[in-house]
Amino acid sequence: MTDRLLEICAVDGTSGDEGMVREYIRSRIHADEMFTDNLGNLIVFRKGRKTPKNKIMFAAHMDEVGFMVTDITGEGFLRFGAVGGVDPRVVLGRSLRFKNGICGVVGTKAVHQQTADERKKAPDFSDMLIDIGAADREEAEKLVSRGDCAVFDSDSFKFGDGFVKSKAIDDRAGCLIMMDMINGTPEYDAWYAFTVQEEVGTRGAQAAAFTVAPDIAVVLESTTACDIADTSGEKRVCELGKGCVVSFMDRLTIYDRELYKLARETGDRLGIPNQTKTLIAGGNDSGAIHVSRGGVRTCALSVPCRYLHSPSCVIRESDFEATAKLANAVLGVFAEL
Fold first, then answer.
1. Of all residues in the chain, what percent are helix, strand and coil, respectively (each to 5)?
2. Positive/negative CA dihedral, 85, 88, 93, 97
3. Which helix (H) or strand (E) holds 59?
4. E strands along 156-311, which residues?
5. Which of helix, strand or coil describes residue 70?
6. Residue range 70-84, pLDDT digits in tens
7. Are the C-beta atoms of residues 195 and 41 closer than 8 Å to each other?
8. 249 phi and psi angles, rounded to 5 deg
């Protein structure tokens, strides 16, 4: 699965501009019903051998964090802002890529020109510019426009003992797991929502959940692992190499207790490595889904990921595979509730 994960991660799709990701997915799945809603969500139905007692929906978001051009200076540099939650410290000096193939480099005032106070803190987006090699505003405007989006222009590769590095693993990992479920031979009917605009407020999930009206939802995600040097105890949140992350709570959702318990028990029973978070933090499409209509029982299964929302997201292949296995397993368990 890793080679296919790197392939889908290479497709560009910032929040609100997920079209290329949607077409990539659409062209590679075989479903019984498939449509795109007015917001851009790709909603898919896959018939299984049995009909579940409850309508079940899996969800994963297509969008990635990125950047949007807000202005062009007279010298031909681009002012920009973040699309989604991006730490400015991971942006300075990075290469960015626009959908039309134009590339640029993010820069700021040289260190020897900064004041003593400026040197003590990382520059904000307002202090940075994208250099696309244009001579002036007129030349730059022939290449990009205000409102155009860019993503990290970053290599993807495997390294170490089963580690994988790429942009956009959040949440192309979840998308690929759902694609394989759709193309497989599922035991039960299920709906699958490839959602838009998660990174700017779980907007697509809100619309998709209203349309599908599921009884039970399983959100497939990538979640922050802080298992790095000088971090200990609960602040590690979750760890690479320990399997799928089953969440009990985050900043947006208190997950259905029975579904949480069943997911953990199912993983243990089938020998699928699984863990939970040790810190209440973050959020995902579950925040919008679980309060849709009259309420939706919701569970989240996530791939632990280091350096989330950066050009160098890092996961371990074994955790990705464990999340895929547990997603397939809980479909049968939740279908009989």
1. 30, 25, 45
2. positive
3. strand 56-61
4. 157-159, 163-166, 190-195, 216-224, 244-246, 274-275, 297-305
5. strand
6. 999 999 999 999 999
7. yes
8. -165, 145
Q: Give the strand pairing for 244-246 and 274-275.
A: parallel
Assess whether pLDDT exceeds 80 at residue 125. Answer: yes
Give 48-105 pLDDT, tens digit per residue. Answer: 999 999 999 999 999 999 999 999 999 999 999 999 999 999 999 999 999 999 999 9
Q: Which residue of the set 198, 221, 239, 321 is catalytic?
A: 198
Task: List the structure tokens of 263.
Answer: 């997911």
CA neighbor of 67 nearest in space, from 81, 78, 79, 77: 81
pLDDT at 116: 77
Q: Report CA-CA distances (Å) from 214 to 38, 102, 162, 304.
A: 19, 42, 36, 26
Known catalytic membership, residue 198? yes
Any idea what the Cα angle at residue 89 is, between residues 84 and 95, rounded to 5°? 80
Please give the domain boundaries of the chain with CATH numbers for all domains: 2-64+167-335 (3.40.630.10), 66-152 (2.40.30.40)
